[in-house]
Design a protein that fits this description.
alpha/beta, 8-stranded parallel β-sheet
Length: 326
């Protein structure tokens, strides 16, 4: 079976430029993007492209955290500073909170994280437990995946599952098996980072299938178009997972533009790039389409704990079409 992570760059297609005219009037929801790794300019570009809401899952930030206070501060930033930064561009920011699979292998620290998670998952803007699941598929990863599934079930929250980069098919199947063992409704579980190898089983078993659009890896724009053509829009959603690596915070609108060019209907595009994320994570009770239709007022003079997105006399950007920095 083809391993898509081993494909050379030429076979993965070229990076796609955003043709904004193709997606005028669309509203986009990126349900998996790590904005803590992105610049404020990315928020501006996303807003200009029609992104109105994002979900930021807690994840591994590139190097191991060494103490419980670093987790507390990180979770606090997801429900505080990042929510504020997004609001400065009219973007609704939500998050999922959890212990990521990679750091579950530090069991002494993982046990402490499990003690603080209940204090964060009920905060405003938290729409699920995530991203959790497998990395190397170790016993420790399974132990803390199971514990967090129980936490999500007891809290009545959706679960955002990270599927492993290695042995993806095995890890995806095992992730779903365990979720069912713990009594979770498949409709409350979003299986992320799918490929052509996993999508059919995920959909057949009633789970949500999310796809991460990365340059030259995981899932490309052109491949995503073909998947939507084959499987339709039901329980499928597109995200960027844009993080500290080579990634693209405009992956959702770019994929939508490619779908337009490929003749996919507007209704289907709206489902996989907007509405399905609301349906899946709306079961948290923290978001719905009516909320997202409301235009939040933007005041870039606001501050969060004394800090603003403006620097040293800067004025808010008023002309999104200008290429002049003045």
């Amino acid at each position: 079976m083809c391993n898509y992570s081993d494909r050379d760059q030429a076979s993965m297609g070229q990076r796609v430029a955003l043709e904004l005219d193709l997606v005028q009037g669309f509203r986009f929801f990126d349900p998996h993007i790590h904005m803590v790794s992105r610049t404020t300019d990315d928020y501006q570009a996303m807003a200009d492209a029609g992104v109105v809401a994002v979900i930021e899952p807690a994840f591994w930030v590139g190097q191991p955290r060494t103490g419980i206070d670093t987790f507390r501060d990180y979770y606090s930033s997801l429900i505080g500073w990042e929510r504020f930064r997004a609001s400065q561009f009219g973007i609704r920011h939500f998050c999922t909170i959890g212990l990521n699979s990679r750091e579950a292998n530090n069991e002494a620290l993982a046990a402490q994280v499990m003690e603080v998670l209940p204090f964060f998952i009920h905060k405003e803007g938290v729409v699920g437990v995530g991203e959790i699941g497998f990395d190397d598929q170790t016993p420790a990863e399974e132990k803390y995946y199971r514990l967090q599934l129980d936490l999500a079930r007891e809290a009545g929250l959706p679960v955002q599952v990270h599927t492993p980069h290695r042995d993806k098919t095995k890890g995806t199947t095992r992730s779903m098996d365990i979720a069912l063992e713990h009594g979770l409704d498949p409709g409350m579980v979003i299986i992320d980072h799918n490929t052509e190898e996993t999508v059919k089983e995920v959909l057949d078993r009633g789970f949500w299938a999310a796809f991460t659009i990365y340059p030259f890896t995981k899932m490309g724009n052109e491949r995503m178009v073909e998947i939507v053509k084959e499987y339709g829009p039901d329980r499928i959603m597109v995200n960027s997972a844009a993080d500290w690596g080579i990634s693209d915070p405009l992956a959702v609108p770019k994929t939508a533009a490619l779908m337009v060019k490929s003749g996919i209907s507007r209704e289907t595009i709206e489902a996989v790039c907007y509405k399905n994320a609301i349906a899946a994570f709306g079961r948290s009770g923290q978001l719905d389409e009516v909320m997202l239709q409301e235009q939040a007022p933007i005041d870039q003079g606001q501050k969060f704990e004394g800090n603003s997105i403006l620097r040293g006399g800067q004025q808010p950007r008023r002309n999104p079409g200008s290429i002049v920095i003045s």
